[in-house]
Amino acid sequence: MKHLRIFIFISALSLACTTLQAQCRFRNTAFKSGEFLSYNLYFNWKFVWVKAGTASMSIVQSKYKGQDAYRASLTTRGNEKVDNMFVLRDTLLCYSTTDLAPLYYRKGALEGKRYTVDEVWYDYTGGNINITQSRLHRSGKKDVRKFVSDECVYDMMNIFLRARSFNPANWKKGYVVNFPIADGNGTNPAQLKFEGKKTIKADNGVKYKCLELSYVEKEKGKWREIAHFFVTDDDNHIPIRLDMYLKFGSAKAFLTNMTGIRSNISSKVK
Q: With contact defined as beta carbons under 8 Å apart, do 169 and 80 qualify?
């Protein structure tokens, strides 16, 4: 009887862990390994939009601590002309399971005179999500925070991967998806809002039918829009244009090229 009780306890603990991780999984319908996207960056300087540099995003199937995973990266590089106004060097990296549960996130950001490296680790053992957050400052000071969550938590890159597989067929303007968002310093409530549909011309000269989305975070009790973006209205949900509201101003990114796309791009306007 004693051994039976131990077996039941271990089985229940294992089931709880599996159930929570299963809740954070999501079927990928939007991308495949080998996808590569490139963008032109523009920066608003004294009410004038100037070419600021380039950005690129890639997704490949990889390994994370021995398990199959997706590795996604996003880099932004300002050009020398814009460096005289504001230095912008961001590198974002994440790992997720092949069914899109977050595993790791890193953001190295050189923005003006500010330099930080944020990291987030996700561990699903024990029936909850054990999250470790770290922020490294230019001075060398490192802040580390650990907490346990009983709900799924995401970061900027991992929620983006998951959002690309959302099915918006029944969404109406104003529809909201709520989720907690983590960085190296803490966790805030966040929302993805559906703003309708619009046709957008990319920097490759092609027009696409797009879904218009707004990403907002709640900071110090107030909602603030972080980004406004347009993704193709097809199964790929490729970002065609991104409007970013930064602490030093605003920037835009327009698609220039795409390769390794999973499905037919039916959103092209002929």
A: no
